[in-house]
Every structure is written in C-alpha cells, then in structure tokens.
Amino acid sequence: HSRGLYATDASLYEMFPVAVALPRDEADVLAALRLAREFGVSVLARGGGTSLAGQAVGHSLVLDFSRYMNRLLEVNPEERWARVEPGLVRDELNRRLAPHGLHFAPDPATSSRANFGGMIANNSSGTRSIFYGKTVDHLLELKVALADGTVLHFGELSPEAYEARCRQTDREGEIHRRFRELIRPHEADILAAFPKVMRRVQGYNLDEFAGKTNWNLAKLICGSEGTLALILEAKVRLEPLPAHKSLCVVHFRGLGEALRGVNPILEFGPSAVELLDEKVLAQARNNLLTRRLCYFLEGEPSAVLVVEFFADTAEEAARRPAQMAQALQSRGIGYAWPVLTDPR
Length: 344
Fold this sequence. Notes:
The chain is α+β, with helices and mostly antiparallel strands and 344 residues long. The protein is 31% helix and 21% strand. The strands form 5 sheets. Strands 4-5-11-7-8 form a 5-stranded antiparallel β-sheet. A 4-stranded antiparallel β-sheet has the order 14-15-13-16. A 3-stranded parallel β-sheet has the order 1-3-2, covered by helices on one side. Helix 6 packs across helix 7.
C-alpha cells in the first residue's frame, strides 16, 4: 500500500518504487545512501509530489523529505534570509515570515504544498517570475549529500576562495577542479548558446558560471532534479512583502492579439502578466463559485491579460495601471482596460 502511494505524483506516470524511506535527519539520509550503494539501487528525492512530468516517481529508493525534514531552522529578518530543510512547504514558510514583512518570492501554482527541495531541484518560478526571477535567483547556500555519502556545503566563492577549494585533495577539491575544467574552455559557447529567456529551467545552469567572477555551486544543484546531490538544507534570500497591489485587466478580441500585447505591457514594469483565454473565462462565468469574481469582464473577450503592479503607496498603485491603460488605448492595444486598485 505504501509503495503504491509513492508510485504516482501529479503527472500521468505510475512507477512503483523499490522501497520508501522517510528520513528524520541527515544521519538517516546518509544511512539510506549507504543501503542504496550496497544494493545497487538508485535514489529519488521526493517532496510534495506536485510534479507534472514524473520527476517524483521511479523504480528507486524514494526518500520522502516532507514528513520529518520540514523544519524552518533559522530566520534573519535584518539580513533577509532563512535556512530551511528540504521538506518545508513554501507557503508555510511565508506564513511564518509574514510578521516580519518578508516572503520567499518564487510562487509556483502549487505553493501551498510545494516543498523547498522540489522547488530548488526544479528551479521553480511562478506568476511573478518577470519581477522576482526563478528560485536560482534567491538561492544563497546549500548543504548537500552526494551519492558516495560525502556531505558538502556550497555558497558563493570569490576567485581566491574557489582556488583554495581546488587545492584541497579531498572529494570537494576534486569537484571544484573538474567543474572549472568543464566551464572555462566552453565559456564563450555557453554564453552564445544558452537561450536568453526569463524562465529557462531546462538543463544544468552552466550560464550561472560562464563570464561570472564569483561562483556558487549551489546554483548548479538548483534545477538539476536530484541528479547531482540530495539537498539537506538551504539558505534562501527573502524579499519584502509588497505594500500595495493593483490590477489592469486588458481585454482582447483575439488570442493572437493578446499574445502580441505582452511586450508592450512589459514596458510598464508589471509584477505579473497572466493570460486567460475564452475557454477559461467561459468556465469561470458558468461556475457557481467563480461567477461572482468575473464582475470586471466587459463584453465577450477572446482573451484577457491580467496585469499586476506593486507599489509603495496607494496613490502609486492607482497611478501605474491607469497610465498603462491610457497608453495601451492610445496605441490601439485591447478594447477594454478596467483597473482594480483593491484586487479581490
């Protein structure tokens, strides 16, 4: 029965694990790795199981970090960082940070159950990625366990500090040396070939090192989907909560027109731009629970772009979407631009 529960995640895939372990601490994780090496079994880390592509299932020894390794270890409100275990849920951290006026900014759709280990492993982002970026942009340090049981701590290193690590004769020194040997000869190719898009999360983050002075191998682990190491602890950067928010809902008569409207909208520095097409809007209008939330829709749009703004004052929150709406109207982009200064 227990193996069956871990045979699926939020995807369509089903693969029964070899075994399941619920580690309580680092010692348990290292013990599980020893057993996996002894029996020649692969190891698969799992958190909230919110993957849509099957990352959380496999014919492996599954380590569920969400049950016990889910603590908030430390918060420094003055320096704006938190140290967490991999099984902590993103929204749970933010609930505890709210009295400090802080939050962890990346906001995937599954934030009410997404674990930090999974967010780091997948380099998650969310609706506000155009403003806050991805998880890798908020990752300061990692404590990880390698397949051979080596425990390492990764953080930002100056060139001098990185060189000192390379001179070490242990496993840590070897990793730093060989990684540098991989990056240096190919820096120009990495800079030229990696896509310059906001939400590139596929592949290893080699572009976080090419052309950079300081290196942080935690950023290599981020997005590696558990292929390089198991995450034991993470130190993440926190952001101030926005003081005020506002919305402008730009209406379009065609989906293509809505897609073409994104770039002009980005000129105004929104925190989020979300597309809702006519199928979603029709379902929302027909649903008894969401019908009352559609009061801002005008006419029968084929698509709308919900544009969010952050501001320090209520006046600024009202001014920014109104300015954008006026500019879009003058440029013939969209046909209606209702502004909501008290989003519900």
